[in-house]
Amino acid sequence: DSGVTQTPKHLITATGQRVTLRCSPRSGDLSVYWYQQSLDQGLQFLIQYYNGEERAKGNILERFSAQQFPDLHSELNLSSLELGDSALYFCASSARDRVDTQYFGPGTRLTVL
Amino acid sequence: GESVGLHLPTLSVQEGDNSIINCAYSNSASDYFIWYKQESGKGPQFIIDIRSNMDKRQGQRVTVLLNKTVKHLSLQIAATQPGDSAVYFCAVLRRDTGNQFYFGTGTSLTVIP
Q1: Using CA atoms, how far apart are residues B2 and A36, in angstroms rounded to an integer?
Q2: Could you tell me where the beta strands, DSSP code E, fall in A8-107?
């Protein structure tokens, strides 16, 4: 157990809908990262937050947004969902702003029908 | 960008044998490397890391070798056990792209009892 929690574990929804994925980092970690893992593809970095502020952006679509709250948990919002958004979404946390060892949560499997 | 690839998508080894999983990266600006293990239905789990100022690092039953000349990284697992069956992938950090990790697609290791 990495200490990073994610909810829900599974999510099934329809095209055009909006969902929110939640992540709680390890105790004491200030940085949260979101990744997308599609079938047969490597992890794709989406976005990083550090202590409530956006720090880095990767291949995140404009339909997706995220935020980190004062208690350091983070939410990833996915809107106008398309079939291609079906994937595993992972959250990871690390202690500091500087990227080093990241600890991953168990992921949320999103299925868009 | 950065291209990170693993040489074999699948690898089968006999229990007790040594396993070697390879990863190639494209950019010489990469300076930090991590190997992750991902079991079915779980998030990636940190195994071992290495910085670019080193060419070898050993952990418990695992060794990572870094060859910066040919931009190649390998993970060696000694005395492979059934519990080692998982997908293994490397993550490459490029400081010149804002501390963003690039991930390989993974090698699926199957240990035959």
Answers
A1: 17
A2: 10-13, 19-24, 31-37, 44-50, 53-57, 64-68, 74-78, 87-94, 103-104
Q: Which residues of B touch A40 (CB under 8 A)?
A: 105
Q: What are phi and psi of A10, to 5 degrees?
A: -130, 150
- Give the three-state DSSP class for A57: strand
Closest CA to A53 of A73, A72, A68, A74: A68
**pLDDT one-digit tens code per residue, B58-94:** 999 999 999 999 999 999 999 999 999 999 999 998 7
Sort out which chain B residues have CB atoms less than 8 A from A45's CB and list them: 100-102
pLDDT for the residue B15: 97
- Cβ–Cβ gap A41/B42 under 8 Å: no
- Quote the minimal CA–CA distance from A29 to chain B in Å: 16
Query: Residue A34's closest CA among B106, B9, A110?
Result: A110
**B107: its two tokens:** 């090698």
Q: Which residue of B has its CA nearest to A47?
A: B100
Indicate whether B5 pLDDT > 70: no
pLDDT for A102 equals 86
Query: Are B43 and A107 a contacting pair at CB < 8 A?
Result: yes
What is the SS3 assignment for B95? helix
Shortest distance, CA A32 to any CA of chain B (angstroms): 13
Residues of chain A with pLDDT under 50: none
